[in-house]
Write a structure and sequence with these properties.
InterPro entries: CAP_assoc, CAP_dom, CAP_sf. Helices cover about 35% and strands about 25% of the residues. The longest helix has 25 residues, at about 225-250. It has helices at about 1-25, 30-45, 75-80, 135-140, 165-170, 200-205, 225-250, 260-275, 290-295, 315-320, 325-330; strands spanning about 85-90, 95-100, 105-110, 115-120, 150-155, 155-160, 170-175, 180-185, 190-200, 210-215, 255, 300-310, 335-345, 345-355.
């Protein structure tokens, strides 16, 4: 009896399915194809899970700097005047640089006449309720840092995963639907070193954290040699300016630009990129001493910082500040001159003490 009842149920289910296919004019072959697409979509969702956005905490940002994202370049020049220079970035926007090259450094990322991102470090910045030099604990009174930060745009979803080092050194907080604040901390002092304000599309281009997503990601930078040369030159100047602002924060003497030493630094960055290695020593065994001697650079002492695959110059600078050996060179008060060389995303600083 149980067998007969089972057969009857299966027959009724098959009859119902046939009725639905006929009613909607779908062949059995087409029906199987449709089910396959649904299964494939579910598989993709499992591999790239969508994390629901958490309700944003109420954050009151009074500082003028936070209000510039979304404003026009015309408003910027009307308020602050012309920038010291305009540097091309690798991500479609240009950096408008404002700095006294000693106490304060701000660069605004402008694309199609609109401000998309800001990086700032130094003294007397209008960033209320937080300030450069405040402790980590003081900053967390205003921002809640989490290991997962999500962003949704239409059917696309993105989740940034921060590891322990990220949370300690460069945590990020979402302050609006499309705007984030990245806080860079000096892990040796536990104080805020600099801030970056950026829109979601800029964050997705930089990809500073591990990312899990459903949807599309922006393409990686694909620039011509001429375009890269402009980007590299801009990043070299940014590293030089930020170096002196950082040195001033620690009461160290400013360093002067040295063009010959910069050429030495550039050739090393280029060599590392072209020959796929990362070291203070070239594949032929030459170190900084030999590279400086080859360009007839005379000095009393010298030091070198290298970095690779950071999304831009400010990120590389914060990396050096948080590495003991690199920090020692960055803040060495004996050095008098600096040469910077950037090739694609390889960065070299060469410090020298001149007699």
């Amino acid at each position: 009896m149980r067998l007969i009842r089972t057969i009857l149920i299966l027959f009724l289910l098959a009859l119902g399915a046939f009725y639905l296919l006929e009613k909607h004019n779908i062949s059995p072959k087409e029906a199987v194809h449709d089910i396959g697409n649904v299964l494939e979509e579910k598989k993709s969702m499992l591999e790239s899970k969508s994390v629901p956005e958490k309700k944003l905490p109420k954050i009151t940002l009074k500082g003028d700097l936070f209000l510039w994202v979304g404003k026009s370049s015309g408003e910027l020049t009307k308020s602050l005047g012309d920038p010291l220079r305009i540097d091309k970035s690798a991500y479609g926007y240009d950096w408008w640089v404002y700095t006294d090259q000693h106490e304060q450094y701000i660069q605004f990322g402008v694309q199609d006449g609109e401000i998309k991102t800001i990086y700032a470090s130094g003294n007397n910045l209008s960033t209320d309720p937080i300030q450069i030099g405040q402790s980590y604990d003081e900053i967390t009174k205003h921002f809640s840092f989490a290991k997962e930060v999500s962003y949704n745009e239409g059917v696309s979803s993105y989740t940034f995963h921060l590891n322990d080092d990220d949370i300690k050194m460069r945590p990020i907080a979402k302050i609006a639907d499309n705007v984030f604040v990245q806080c860079y901390f000096d892990t040796f002092t536990g104080k805020l070193s600099s801030i970056r304000i950026l829109t979601a599309d800029v964050l997705l281009k930089h990809r500073p954290y591990k990312i899990e997503y459903r949807g599309d990601l922006p393409d990686e930078p694909n620039l011509s040699d001429k375009e890269w040369a402009k980007v590299e030159s801009g990043m070299e100047q940014q590293i030089f300016d930020i170096t002196n602002v950082m040195r001033n924060q620690f009461d160290k003497k400013s360093v002067k630009w040295n063009e010959t030493v910069s050429k030495v630094a550039f050739l090393h960055s280029e060599d590392m990129a072209e020959n796929n290695y990362f070291s203070h020593y070239s594949k032929n065994g030459n170190g900084l001493k030999e590279r400086l001697a080859a360009k007839e650079v005379y000095y009393l002492s010298a030091g070198e910082n290298i970095a690779a695959q950071y999304p831009d110059a400010p990120a590389a600078m914060e990396g050096w500040l948080n590495s003991e050996g690199h920090r020692a060179a960055l803040l060495n008060n004996d050095y008098t001159h600096l040469g910077v060389g950037v090739y694609h995303f390889y960065y070299t600083q060469n410090f020298v003490e001149k007699p």
